[in-house]
Amino acid sequence: MLNIVLFGPPGAGKGTQSENLINKYNLTHISTGDLFRKHLKEGSDLGKLAQKYMDDGFLVPDEVVIGMVDDKIKNTPDVNGFIFDGFPRTVAQAKALDELMSNKGTPISGMIALEVPFEELKTRLLERGKVSGRVDDQNEEKIDNRIKVYLDETLPVSEYYKEQDKFSAIDGVGSIDGIFEKICEVVDSLSVEK
Ligand code: ADP
User: Fold this and answer.
1) b/e per residue, 166-180, with b = 16+ CB within 10 A?
2) Catalytic residue numbers?
3) Among 105, 125, 135, 149, which is least packed by CB within 10 angstroms?
4) Average pLDDT of the residues in 111-137
5) 149 alpha carbon – ligand 1 mean position (Å)
């Protein structure tokens, strides 16, 4: 199986490139942000709990996120592989993911990080806020907080994958197609354990 962690700050283009990867490699998308938004729309208890954190750009507690991903993996057997988008966002989540995948007998193949300067991220997120309706995209203070949370809590996750020799970085500025080509070069070079 091909199991990819797509990594990067808010607004780096993970959602867009995930769509491209799913189509090309026939992978199952696990976006924790999308899963939380789905719960929120459905008005579930999980959605209500997550909303308190999401609206201001704080992380939902690890045990909640990990439980949700565990469920999703268990409920989607017989897949070609997974693309994790917006997860893991803390080192504790990365460790938990390794355990979940090792129980499934299929490790993470690699992490691909999209690198985008912070000023560009802010511009992109504010633009997205005009159409997405997402509360967390509509306010500069909330965006600054998400970037701070990313630097403090999420960036160390890249070190975790570097230590396992599973890390690749890609310049996330340029055309969507051009960036996707560079991502595919990395994906095609990954060693995939069956
Ligand atoms: P973005 O990458 O644009 O910030 P996401 O859609 O990935 O947006 O996530 C939106 C919000 O959902 C985050 O700000 C956070 O509150 C919550 N969230 C998503 N994924 C996680 C995660 N893995 N751990 C904790 N919180 C998460």
Assistant:
1) bbbebebeeeeeebb
2) 14, 89, 128, 134, 146
3) 105
4) 94
5) 10
Q: Which pTM does this prediction carry?
A: 0.95
Question: What pLDDT, on a 0 to 100 scale, did the predictor assign at position 77?
Answer: 86
Ligand 1 atom nearest the C-alpha of 14 is: 2
Return the SS3 of 108: coil
Q: 32 CB under 6 A from ligand 1? A: yes
For ligand 1, atom 14, the nearest C-alpha belongs to 57
157 φ, ψ to 5°? -65, -30
CATH superfamily of 2-183: P-loop containing nucleotide triphosphate hydrolases (3.40.50.300)
pLDDT of residue 193: 62
pLDDT digits (tens, 9 = 90+) for 127-156: 999 998 888 999 999 999 999 999 999 999
Whether the CB of 17 sits within 6 Å of ligand 1: no
CA–centroid distance, residue 120 to ligand 1 (Å): 19
* pLDDT above 70 (res 31): yes
Please state the φ and ψ torsions of residue 165, each to the nearest 5 degrees.
60, 40
